[in-house]
Amino acid sequence: MVQKHKPARAAKTLKNRKTGELALLDIIRTRAALAGFGNSRVRLGIGDDCALLRPRAGEELAVTTDLSIEGRHFRLDWHSPESVGHRTLARGLSDLAAMGAKPVAAFLSLGLPRELTVSRDGSQPWVERFLDGLLALASEHGVVLAGGDLAESPIAVADIVLTGAVPGGRALFRSGARSGDLIYVTGSLGGAAAELAALGQSPQSFAEATHASQTNPHLYPQPRVAQGLWLRKHKLASAAMDLSDGLSTDLAHICKESGVAAEIDELALPLGHGATLEMALHGGEDYELLFTAPVSAKLPRKIAGVAITPVGRIVSAKPGKASVTLLTEKGGRTMSTPLEPRGWEHFSDNPVGS
Fold it and tell me: Of 130, 186, 190, 292, which one has the fewest beta carbons inside 10 Å?
């Protein structure tokens, strides 16, 4: 469907329609058109064999993909459908933010058990509430849902592909950090891990959290798109990535790609609500931005309303030494301890995240 005009009719729902793949496709197509109206970079969206994207002259396309799997990334008895939809899109948006890319289009492939596509007692089906969460965040960031796929599956799986636009040669990378640079994070750390722990203790208390809240960094993470665009526009960040797997793990990635080492100041870390130091260092899923900048860079205390905190510095790498160390104050002395990457890692013996 060519995105030229806003459809006049409101989106139908599966509550008063026949069920099945074609009916669900019709619902998604109508709702996607309503949510994505006005994005000139998407020439052709849902309705043909392929979508057509139209980047502007001098732009490059950034592309990222993320899987969300029931039982691994979310649980049907813990997470509301709106939260699952929001988180599915937020993961990809956070990747685009880290590259300084403006979001353009999303492609969603859903594998669902049949019971999640039908109404129960006249209520809205799970899949429609999932779309509520995903499309609300898509509308906030001007993202068009431009295609995807549907299949019946024994468990719920959502695979999202996000595309973004960035001026040629201007994307932010992990590989630009240099010795002497300062290390910064947006927002606070560990809040998502703290909420996840609370969710495990009392899932019912979160069952009706159906919209974004600053107190729900796990259920409704806020991708720092505006902050990433600001950093790219002002050319202040030397390296950047998003904090999805935990500071200890993600900072090690920047060090590896840049060929440097890093020191983190324990007392400088901005802890999220209810978070411990362990959660801030290793918890993951904060979806904040981690970036470096030269000491000479004049960074504000906030970017687009979100706090920016210096938490350490980049140093030269030394053979046989840890790439990341934690500086702590004990008895008036500064102690340096190797910081082992203990954030989330698939196929690991001791994963921490969700």
Answer: 130
